[in-house]
Design goal:
Elements: H1 12-63, H2 91-94, H3 102-105, H4 114-125, E1 143-144, E2 152-153, E3 156-157, E4 164-165, E5 170-173, H5 192-196, E6 231-235, E7 264-265, E8 272-273, E9 285-286, E10 291-296, E11 301-305, H6 310-317, E12 331-332
Parallel strand pairs: 5-7, 8-9
Antiparallel strand pairs: 1-4, 2-3, 5-6, 6-10, 10-11, 11-12
């Protein structure tokens, strides 16, 4: 006689228990997935800093000095003017030849028609570059440009105002100065002729103790502490609520502007993790959890704790304190 096997359907309670267990498993997995994604983004960020450092070293090999930080936030790069004190554009502009960006750097070069030249410079200023954007913070695209929409160029203020612009999440080290730009109340030169005049009253740069700052001309031999013990470029602090608005006071200019705190930061204050509604426009920091990344002048990239000893942080920013960090407190390997 054939035995009949009965199959009981799952009850509603059993189904709900199963779904609850699956939901709990998913919730337990989500932090691990998020952590893995952030770890991958941090790795990409460190690779970008390493490339910027490598481009800087190529510049140093070719020019025998680090790229200048430019003139003033009211200026953008001029393609005919090299990468030294005569270049109004900042360090990001001065590295383009070493980041496969020679064509972008030359936009407007030799163009005599004022409108055509302005259109070319505007094109450059609105072209985002992946090397300058941290994937933990935002995507690679132009962002709203709310201030200084008509920066100075060879032909005067940019004829076609900027509504959106490329940005940077990385900043050069100006040292342990209280300033990361010339006093914003100082208007700067309004023409190339004025800026080139030997009698023009440029602010003193004596207080800047780092590698890149306004009209800087720093050579490797000027770094007394050694290149492995000196910050070159690091992640900058941003208001976490203003990543995409263009209204953060340390992120309101375009990528290729001259000397200002959008692209230069100081080690006077500690590095700060990105916070919503906070203004630490002169300090380093990042969107990463527990650490910020910085490239040193020898090309190495380090994950630094936000709890790094402030005296050590300051010494890592200063090229002429003559000592270098006394210890490596706060470093994450």
């Amino acid at each position: 006689m054939e035995k009949i096997v009965s199959r009981r359907a799952l009850s509603l309670v059993e189904v709900l228990v199963t779904l609850t267990i699956l939901g709990l498993m998913v919730q337990l997995m989500l932090p691990a997935v998020a952590a893995a994604r952030e770890s991958a983004r941090r790795l990409v960020c460190s690779q970008k800093l390493r490339r910027l450092a490598a481009a800087t070293r190529l510049h140093v090999e070719a020019k025998h000095h680090f790229p200048s930080g430019g003139w003033h936030f009211t200026w953008v790069g001029e393609p005919e003017r090299g990468t030294g004190k005569q270049q109004p554009g900042g360090w990001a502009y001065n590295l383009l030849d070493y980041l496969d960006g020679a064509e972008l750097r030359r936009l407007g070069q030799g163009v005599t028609d004022p409108f055509a030249r302005a259109a070319a410079i505007r094109q450059r200023c609105t072209t985002p570059l992946a090397e300058f954007i941290c994937p933990s913070r935002r995507s690679v695209k132009p962002y709203p440009h709310e201030w200084n929409r008509q920066p100075f160029t060879q032909g005067g203020p940019l004829a076609i105002p900027l509504e959106h612009a490329a940005k940077t999440d990385y900043a050069a080290n100006v040292g342990d100065s209280p300033l990361t730009e010339f006093d914003w109340r100082w208007q700067g030169p309004t023409s190339l002729t004025e800026g080139d005049n030997r009698r023009f009253a440029w602010p003193s740069s004596a207080g800047f103790t780092g590698v890149i700052y306004g009209r800087s001309w720093v050579r490797p031999t000027d770094i007394r502490d050694g290149e492995s013990k000196t910050y070159l470029i690091g992640e900058k602090f941003m208001d976490a609520g203003k990543y995409e608005t263009g209204n953060d006071w340390g992120d309101n200019e375009n990528l290729f502007t001259g000397f200002n705190n959008d692209s230069c930061r100081s080690t006077l204050g500690p590095p700060i993790p990105d916070l919503d509604g906070k203004d630490h426009r002169n300090q380093f920091g990042s969107a990463h959890v527990g650490a910020w990344l910085a490239a040193r002048c020898d090309g190495s990239v380090h994950a630094m704790s936000f709890e790094v000893d402030l005296a050590t942080h300051r010494r890592l920013g200063n090229i002429r304190d003559g000592s270098g960090p006394r210890h490596q407190q706060g470093l994450q390997r």
